[in-house]
């Protein structure tokens, strides 16, 4: 299913196609005439196999489509089918990496009345999608702002334009991971490094290595200085000025945190005399914009978090359903994701949430996702198959580990009756994610039904561990014996109980001789004063050992 950037209706404040293409700069290689003022309010990214599914919809399609990996013949056929639909049910523009100025594909788009835009073959689709989404978000925010405030405020795109006009040259603003967030228009003096960054590609490795050798990145982390990076003829790069975007340290707090950087490439004319002062001021403004963006979720984001039970309790289900464009009733699925081991920092987890949203929307166009604390959640309305959801979740967890070295656990709640039960389903999912590795019987993905026993048992053990009155003092004698004699009677007893009293199986797990384990079990019974052949003693002692393991 396609990835959609937003669920706002077509009547929402739109951006002209001309403005959107201008934001993409050299990533666009051809745009047809006569469509510049076409309003765009929604966009979607579709992959091979999704086009036929889109034709099944009898509601207005997103205004702008980004076609990823779709064949030319398949796309031409899709345009032909769209031409048979009423104009109000067709998209208004399509972006593709196929040539768009002539041929059967261009003819089919023209007959359907759809603007066909050719994107540079080396442009990264996720980069293009993100830039377009930010442009649409920017338009909606500006439309909702007080006019007086709007006159004094700006976003990163606006800031890039202002810096370029006042400092001279061409500006690009990057985040801490060197992803381009915004930039000013390019001219024919733009070097290959700038062109690659606008396409969402990494710069030449030799140049990046040179930046590290020259200490550029270290200086950006350590000071607010504007750094002069000389031209490098061998690498084909022009002179640049760069300044770090740093969140200032607050009283007694940690050192300043680097949020990104602003790069100014020299063009045909030299930099303005006060270019360094302009960059320092821009860095301060950019820090406020980036921080504000991180800390102030959109109205839609707040609504989604309320749906999941955060930011206050209770939601008006019909209103949420209408605002998000999702079904209010019918079986839904809630999936929670949590990192295994140390959680990424706030920036890293926000990025993880964005990537997760991308994958979830690709799986289900009407999916809804959010990040709450150090966990991410996905709602899949009107799911068709619990098996397919579990398979998708497992594949996603494996993909994150393989491609991003992030190890996740996931818990699935199905079925969720309606939107009114999403918050309670999230709490159930959290109960599973709070569990130990034993909660996940077949790896790192489980459902509530599969994990009910270990979840409840784990919570019972936690209650026992937290209440001193429920602790059996006889266990202290065994713990003391282990400490005094450097023995492992507690571990031996735990293995014996886990093996249901099978001495040979437990001995194999402990890598000791069965007779050694038999001796240890006799010593345990003597020291504690219990009979492990008695069902009540056995149950109580296993719970006590597990509770000790949680607090040890």
TrEMBL record:
InterPro entries found in the cross-reference section: CdaR-like_regulators, PucR_C-HTH_dom, PucR_C-HTH_sf
Gene3D superfamilies in the cross-refs: PucR C-terminal helix-turn-helix domain (1.10.10.2840)
Domain PucR C-terminal helix-turn-helix residue range list: 492-547
Bilayer-spanning residue ranges: none
Record-given protein name: PucR C-terminal helix-turn-helix domain-containing protein
UniProt lineage: Bacteria, Bacillati, Actinomycetota, Actinomycetes, Mycobacteriales
């Amino acid at each position: 299913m396609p990835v959609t950037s937003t669920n706002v209706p077509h009547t929402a404040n739109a951006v002209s196609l001309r403005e959107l293409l201008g934001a993409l700069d050299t990533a666009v290689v051809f745009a047809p005439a006569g469509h510049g003022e076409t309003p765009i309010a929604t966009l979607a990214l579709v992959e091979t196999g999704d086009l036929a599914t889109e034709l099944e919809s009898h509601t207005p399609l997103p205004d702008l489509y980004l076609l990823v990996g779709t064949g030319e013949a398949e796309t031409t056929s899709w345009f032909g089918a769209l031409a048979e639909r009423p104009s109000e049910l067709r998209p208004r523009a399509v972006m593709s990496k196929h040539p768009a100025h002539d041929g059967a594909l261009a003819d089919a788009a023209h007959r359907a009345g759809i603007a066909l835009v050719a994107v540079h073959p080396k442009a990264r689709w996720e980069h293009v999608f993100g830039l377009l989404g930010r442009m649409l978000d920017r338009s909606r925010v500006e439309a909702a702002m007080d006019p007086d405030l709007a006159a004094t405020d700006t976003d990163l795109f606006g800031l890039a334009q202002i810096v370029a006009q006042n400092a001279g040259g061409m500006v690009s603003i990057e985040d801490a991971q060197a992803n381009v967030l915004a930039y000013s228009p390019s001219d024919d003096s733009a070097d290959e490094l700038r062109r690659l960054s606008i396409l969402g590609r990494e710069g030449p490795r030799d140049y990046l290595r040179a930046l590290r050798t020259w200490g550029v990145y270290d200086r950006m982390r350590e000071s607010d200085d504007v750094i002069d990076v000389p031209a490098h003829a061998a690498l084909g790069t022009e002179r640049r000025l760069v300044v770090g975007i740093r969140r200032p340290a607050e009283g007694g707090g940690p050192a300043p945190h680097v949020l990104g950087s602003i790069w100014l490439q020299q063009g045909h004319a030299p930099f303005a005399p006060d270019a360094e002062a302009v960059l320092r001021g821009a860095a301060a403004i950019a820090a406020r914009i980036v921080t504000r963006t991180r800390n102030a979720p959109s109205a839609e984001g707040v609504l989604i978090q309320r749906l999941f039970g955060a930011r206050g309790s209770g939601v008006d289900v019909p209103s949420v359903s209408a605002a998000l464009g999702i079904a209010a009733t019918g079986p839904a699925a809630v999936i929670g994701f949590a990192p295994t081991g140390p959680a990424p920092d706030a920036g890293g987890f926000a990025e993880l949430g964005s990537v997760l949203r991308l994958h979830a929307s690709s799986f289900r166009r009407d999916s809804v996702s959010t990040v709450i604390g150090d966990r991410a959640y996905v709602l899949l309305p009107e799911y068709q198959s619990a098996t397919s959801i579990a398979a998708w979740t497992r594949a996603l967890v494996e993909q994150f580990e393989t491609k991003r070295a992030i190890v996740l656990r996931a818990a699935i709640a199905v079925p969720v009756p309606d939107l009114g039960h999403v918050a309670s389903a999230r709490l159930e999912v959290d109960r599973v994610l709070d569990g130990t590795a034993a909660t996940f019987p077949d790896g790192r993905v489980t459902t509530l039904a599969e994990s009910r026993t270990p979840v409840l048992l784990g919570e019972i053990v936690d209650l026992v561990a937290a209440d001193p009155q429920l602790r059996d003092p006889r266990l202290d004698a065994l713990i003391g014996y282990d400490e005094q004699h450097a023995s492992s009677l507690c571990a031996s007893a735990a293995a014996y109980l886990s093996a249901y009293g099978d001495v040979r199986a437990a001995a194999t797990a402990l890598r000791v001789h069965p007779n050694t384990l038999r001796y240890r079990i006799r010593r345990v019974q003597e020291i504690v004063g219990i009979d492990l052949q008695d069902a009540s003693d056995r149950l109580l002692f296993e719970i006590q050992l597990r509770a000790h393991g949680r607090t040890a």
